[in-house]
């Protein structure tokens, strides 16, 4: 007998009909002689009664502390846990549920985006002795101060892998409404191809750059513990996509694609300081203050423009613009910029693949595809497996379709 960890997201827990499909996946494993730990997300998306965004919409979040918001949003997963227990029990299955404290996911106190510090699976293992199905609320943990925390949006994927680590599972199944990982979001690029395998490194880049199908911290944790993730659909019994280590993919020649995926995001902003005094270490001081403000800089560019002046450009998340503008104002006397330009309507398109480093002309192909279709590339960043271009936000979907056609069409 094996214990299978299955995670069901909001697209699976959403309604009585979607949950019927979800239960078929659990029951299949019971019929195979296995036991199931089901990690569940809140039911559905905004406007569904108990979905995370619905819960957030019924309060004024400015009037609540982050700790209070965690107490509110974690309820969505608790409701989902109890609904699934009631329905599965009614169908005659032996089911136990796990409370927040019994989950054993210990975190720091960084509410709304907590980091897991330890995972302890003894309560789940005990319950597995008494029941065939153990249902766990995803997305949450508890801090050393005994408070409920949440793991960031999309965090139930991370819960599932963390529980997989705690109970020593060799594989974690993550169910959603798509049959695994595609070469692009199939809702944006209908011709996207389903991948059989993808490496942790490529999946991490896809997730970090906008592919919400898997949470990036879940991929990091799976890579650290060498746990295979099987991303698949609640509504389709075929195999989905296996996310696993590069070594196995290389050794068994599991993936021949140069490019594994195209992804995009639409929440960036560009801040440019024009004509900064080049004699002082302006960028260094700017970065120090930006880091103190807890802001992540996605891309940075500095160019000498003559006359003892330089231009500095930053790409940040648009939610961080007010904080960065405040930092720039505080440093005005030191940096002496002639002007500061904030452009909020920025997005990103990213081409991801292990083949990038070994194939010439990849950047040129990305750049030419965009520019020849009137999409202006404002800034770029490249690594061995990722070419990212920052473009007008309104062009992000079109850019994904064009790049998919150019590389994978
Ligand atoms: N490369 C990709 N492959 C598959 N799905 C993707 C990709 N990029 C984005 N998606 C989106 O991810 C969605 C599934 O993830 P998500 O909405 O988080 O489901 P759940 O709430 O069930 O966890 C799909 O409906 C799809 O639109
Ligand atoms: N309900 C949480 C956690 C989560 O992971 O949800 P889902 O599995 O539906 O993406 C959220 O919306 O962020």
UniProtKB/TrEMBL annotation:
Note the InterPro entries from the entry.
AceGlu_kinase-like_sf (IPR036393), ACT-like_dom_sf (IPR045865), ACT_Aspartokinase (IPR054352), Asp/Glu/Uridylate_kinase (IPR001048), Asp_kin_monofn (IPR005260), Asp_kinase (IPR001341)
Domain of life, per UniProt, equals Bacteria
Task: Provide this UniProt record's keywords sorted from A to Z.
Answer: Amino-acid biosynthesis, ATP-binding, Diaminopimelate biosynthesis, Kinase, Lysine biosynthesis, Nucleotide-binding, Transferase
Residues forming the Aspartokinase ACT domain are 349-407
Q: What is its EC number?
A: 2.7.2.4
Cite a GO CC annotation: cytosol
State any single GO MF term.
Answer: ATP binding
Catalytic activity from the UniProt record: L-aspartate + ATP = 4-phospho-L-aspartate + ADP
Q: What GO biological process, any one, is recorded here?
A: lysine biosynthetic process via diaminopimelate
Pathway it belongs to? Amino-acid biosynthesis; L-methionine biosynthesis via de novo pathway; L-homoserine from L-aspartate: step 1/3; Amino-acid biosynthesis; L-threonine biosynthesis; L-threonine from L-aspartate: step 1/5; Amino-acid biosynthesis; L-lysine biosynthesis via DAP pathway; (S)-tetrahydrodipicolinate from L-aspartate: step 1/4
Name the positions where ATP binds: 7-10, 182, 187, 212-213
Q: What class of enzyme is it?
A: transferase
Question: What does the entry list as the binding residues for substrate?
Answer: 77
Q: Where is the Aspartate/glutamate/uridylate kinase domain?
A: 2-230
Q: Which family does it belong to?
A: Belongs to the aspartokinase family.
Protein role:
Catalyzes the phosphorylation of the beta-carboxyl group of aspartic acid with ATP to yield 4-phospho-L-aspartate, which is involved in the branched biosynthetic pathway leading to the biosynthesis of amino acids threonine, isoleucine and methionine.
Provide the protein name: Aspartokinase
